[in-house]
Amino acid sequence: MTGEMIAFFILALVAICGGVFMIHSENVVHMVVSLIFTFLSIAGIYILLSAEFVAVVQVLIYSGAITIIMLFGIMLTKHDPKSEKRIAKSRILAVGTGVVAFFIIMFLAINKLSFKQQDVELYVHNVKKIGIELYSKYVIPFELTSILLLVALIGAVVLAKKDESEEMNEHE
Amino acid sequence: MMQYAWLIPLMPLLSFILLLLLGKKLKEASAYVGIWLTAVPLVMSFIVFFGQWGGESYKAEGTWLTIGHAVITFGIEINPLNSLMLVIVSLVSFLVHLYSKGYMNGDERVPVFFAYLGLFTFAMLGLVMSPNLLQLYMFWELVGLGSFLLIGYYYFKPEARQAAKKAFIMTRIGDVGLFIGMILLFWQVGSFEFDDIFKAVASHEMTHAMITLTAILIFVGAIGKSGQLPLHTWLPDAMEGPTPVSALIHAATMVAAGVYLVATMYPLFAASTAALTTVAVVGGVTAIFAASIGLMQKDIKRVLAYSTVSQLGYMMLALGSGGYVAGVFHLTTHAFFKALLFLAAGSVIHAVHTQDIEKMGGLYRKLKRTGPLFLIGALAISGFPLLSGFFSKDQILAATYEDGRFGLFWLAIIAAFFTAFYMFRLFFMVFTGEFRGAAKEVHESPGVMTFPMIVLGILAVLAGYVNTSWFGTFLSDYLGKGEVAPLASNHEPIWISVVATLVSLLGIFMAYLIYKKGSLSRDWLSRHLPSLSSVVYNKYYIDEVYHAVIVRGVRAFSYGWSLIDRYIVEGIVNGAVALVHWLAKLGSKCQNGQVQTYGAVAFVGLVLLLLIFAVSGGYFS
Amino acid sequence: MSSLPLPVFLVLALILFCIGLFGALTKRNAVIVLISIELMLNAVNINLVAFSKYGPNPGITGQIFSLFTITVAAAEAAVGLAILFALYRNRRTVNVNEMDQLKR
Asked: What distance, in Å, lies between the first and last C-alpha atoms of chain A?
């Protein structure tokens, strides 16, 4: 049992526990907070996979940005678990069986998968390598991504902005 | 003349068609169409009959169907038995047509009535002229149809509807036997022709067991049609029809068809002792059985109906005992005196408008012609010496005695006593004593009704003289000419005549004592043996037994199947429907506008695809 | 070098993906549905990174791909929440059961 293995199992346990808690919880804020643990442990997994830069991005964007946005979303809307209609049991059952079946099939497929392990040293100058690739080979997707982010920003603002007619209604 | 004999049955058919087409216009006049179109066949029948007297059998046939090597023909045959039946049927039919003119006067549906009568007469004449079994069977069924229509003529009366249905179904049970026998014969002989069948029987082509089997099956048909035990119950109920119909169908002609069938198939029966014994026993038991029921009935037509059943039993007894001539002889005389009795009963009913003999009485003085005629009929059927019934009954008794069936012989003697007793019970209750009815004025029937009765009365007196040992044996000679008929000897011991006469006189005397003089109490039997009398009065509970056993049984059986149909067959159908319905419901439930549901459905679909992929041995398995 | 085989990471990713999928299809709060989708995307990212190390053609490309994915996921989360707000303002609810305008 190497230290790497111990680290992996702890991280995996935390990630799965966070997910299960998210599924199980009634309180919306608890759900989001439990998912922060999942995201953080996923960042740890990335480090185990010698992807430090991605791990850092993961912490920044998921654990930081997205979770905070979601918390804002929760706080800006009204949540009353008791008054909300429950999801039909039949659908939970159907989706549950579907998920389990999906899991089994995929698990069987994964079990059959085997590649020869090759030695690559991704952890050496990881950020530098990413930077070189990103700005040489993937420069056009990179720029397109920035456009996408811009569009998303403007779109989000436009969508979330209050309608003028509604403002009128609220004044009345 | 013989080559035109085929016209005989076509005349009544023409009457039927004409009356169906033009009946609405002809109205009352339609009776004349029916009468004239039966008068012509009557004349032709007589010509044929007398032509047959000296001549040969005549047969004309055309091929109808060819099936493999078997040729099915269609045609007519005239032999002694046939031509005798032709005369009886056309004569009675003509007289009944005439009588109906008076009896049905004022009925709205006279054309329909005469049309039915025409159809029936056509079928009956065709039946007796058939040269092969298949044709006979077809006319046999047509006769049944005619009977059904006529019994149900008063279709607005529920009893009449019931009776018509009952008659049709009961005779149908017998017909199934006839049909199976017919098919078996065809299988064995390869032909429906009577001649071929008799040839096969004579040359021992058929095994003895097969002969017995087919003979008994054909006799089952005769049982149904002739109202023998145990299929007799329809005949008394058939009295719901108009009285002329009862006279024509249920006394003289149709019920005699069973007897005729046995007579015409006689070589087949004669070849099997077992079959003859069956016929004789059924006939004998029916004779005494029906006669005993007749003792207690209160409806004038029902008494006559049971009397008919009993007399038909006599005929069967004669045929079964080898008395071919005696059976046919009794068929002839019975046709006349029973038709006479029915017509007279109809005349009485016409006068007092009731059928209950308790409500009649003293009518002899009021119905000056009907009374004596009824008396003649009653005397004839009772076997009063020198009337027709005396001779024919004597011969039946002699034939039975000669055959060595002493049990049946004594049964027949007792039945003769019963017959005399109930006929004169009827006579005394209806025609003597005080009038007990409600009708104010009682009129004699018109001439158009009494004329046929007079003709039949004369025949009832005289018909016996065609075959007596000391006057002349015309009928035996005539029937014996066709080679089919084994002869019954005519030298009966004289004491049989004496005993029969004494017995019937005793019956008449007893009836006189009880119902006229009143010196013996009427309800002696019901007082001393109440259970027996109620059993007899209720016709031995045969109908009730049939109802309990057969009708209920069939009901229970079909109820069981209907349950299976309802819950299993329909369950499957409804299940399929419900499945589709459920699937559709599910499908429409999925279309609820929620993206999540759509996603779930799409995901389940994907999983299903993956499953198929995995199970069918794709990459994943 | 490493004692951890590839399938271990893949199974972890699979478990997280299944959890996310179940949440996305059965949770009634729209915000949680969005977060569940994020979880699913994360599971995919684990796969990408794992393959970039242990796959048949190891290289930095997998990591770059996961970076793009994260970026797009962030954009998606922002737009999704914006739509959610718009909807909430119109219907006063974030319950996905009541969002059935597709039917109308």
From this structure: 69
